[in-house]
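Hello K.,

You asked for the raw outputs rather than the summary table, so here they are, unedited. I folded two proteins back to back in the same session to keep the settings identical. This is the first:
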Amino acid sequence: MGDTIFSKIIRGEIPCHKVYEDERVLAFLDVGPLSRGHTLVIPKEAAPTLDALSDESAAAIGRVLPRLCRAVKSVTGCADYNVLQNNGAPAHQAVFHVHFHIIPKPDSERGLEVGWPATRLDPVAGAALAEKLRAALT
């Protein structure tokens, strides 16, 4: 994985507005926020996508993410928010270091706007796909 802006922030080469830090996780305000309080949560481990992240770093993010969401809600006064995590350029990932966005949704005009082109899951195809996914977990 190449050197990213996030690895430079972790090393202290680029300043950030730090919100939280421990031995595995760093959280800081996004410099291009979609709304007030837009926070990025990153592992200190350099992994480009979530599937490449170690279980230990994933667990560390999982432990702190709810607490950070509560803090963002409390400080911004927004009851609603999105947690967004993209993997790969076609999935809108711009920085190839795992990161989660906590994006407060103060009203219909600000925050994250999402299109959701849902389809219907065929029951037979769904059963076959679920079986393949279960097998891939072993």
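The second followed immediately with the same parameters:
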Amino acid sequence: MTTDILTEFLKTQHHCIEQLDNILDIEKQALVDREHETIETLAQQKESLLHKLNELDQQIGEHLAQQPLPEHLHPIKQKITELAQLCQQKNLENGRAIDLSINSLNRLQRSIMQKRSGNSMTYNAKGKTRGAGSSSGYISA
């Protein structure tokens, strides 16, 4: 009976990690295409899947505390582990792309502010730029 439950948990976990892998691929393309609304939706889906994976992991851990993982389930566990590592790598790459995009937007914002206010730029305590000619004070995007 416990083996059947473990099998179902592992199959569900494998399905979830496959979905996560697919979402990360879609997210990468959305980052390239600069589809910000899609990226936000995908982030919510990733969070939901990660939460479900964490719950499944806890449930599997509770069952494995009672008995070791049967030999016939080791291959699926190995597939899950390998796919999880691949997902982690893809997520890191997507995170780097997001960081680069944010840095690019910040440079663009500074450039626009410099053009708008000429050479009369000042900085606040947090290092944000402010144009002296600006009537509204600090400019933020």
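Confidence is low (pLDDT under 50) at residues 133-137.

Happy to rerun anything if the numbers look odd on your end.

Regards,
P.
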